[in-house]
Specification:
Layout: E1 3-8, E2 11-15, E3 31-45, E4 52-71, H1 75-86, E5 91-94, E6 102-108, E7 115-120, E8 125-134, E9 154-156, E10 167-169
């Protein structure tokens, strides 16, 4: 299950959306993971050629991503995380991707703030958007999830247009389409 772990003045806590058992863990993944690399320093543009020059102090390597389908019960943890990051705190990011990547020390990317939005008013579910940089190493922050669950994986389906409580097992590599 993808999650963010941190320790603040109140103690250690883990943030995830609690959907690790849904669709073989697919529902618990980070969404829209987009890595970035950004040199930080002074830049100038040559008048004669227009070429850009930079004196780089460091290179920030990070990622933008979302934690979706956060239930209202997680709001106290989400708010603690947001305050912790804005106060300069570090977090551990466990992607639960196909390579088992974990980033032990991440902080809020410069000139960004965590954003919390109410995404589903009926279910009262939130989305947390973050931009973090890897403080611990010079590794890029990558995350690669497999396309589809493996054959024989138990998938749980829920929603107003689905059968309540129904479970389906993926038996082949065929493509399944919703009817109706």
């Amino acid at each position: 299950m993808a999650r963010i772990i941190f320790t603040d003045a109140a103690g250690a806590v883990t943030l995830d959306n609690g959907l690790g058992a849904v669709a073989a863990g697919v529902a618990a993944r980070f969404a829209a993971w987009t890595p970035f690399t950004r040199p930080i320093g002074h830049t100038r543009v040559a008048l004669g050629t227009g070429a850009r020059y930079m004196f780089a102090f460091r290179t920030d390597r990070g990622a933008r991503f979302r934690v979706e389908e956060l239930p209202a019960l997680q709001l106290p943890v989400v708010l603690r995380l947001m305050a912790h990051l804005e106060n300069g705190g570090a977090v551990r990011v466990e992607t639960d991707d196909s390579h088992g990547r974990t980033y032990a020390s991440c902080g809020l990317a410069p000139e960004t703030v965590p954003e919390l939005t109410l995404e589903d008013r009926r279910r009262i579910q939130y989305t947390l958007s973050l931009a973090l940089i890897n403080l611990g190493t010079t590794d890029d922050m990558l995350c690669e999830y497999a396309e589809t669950p493996a054959s024989g994986t138990l998938l749980l389906v829920a929603g107003p247009d689905r059968l309540p409580g129904a479970t389906f097992a993926r038996a082949s590599t065929a493509t399944y389409h919703a009817l109706g």
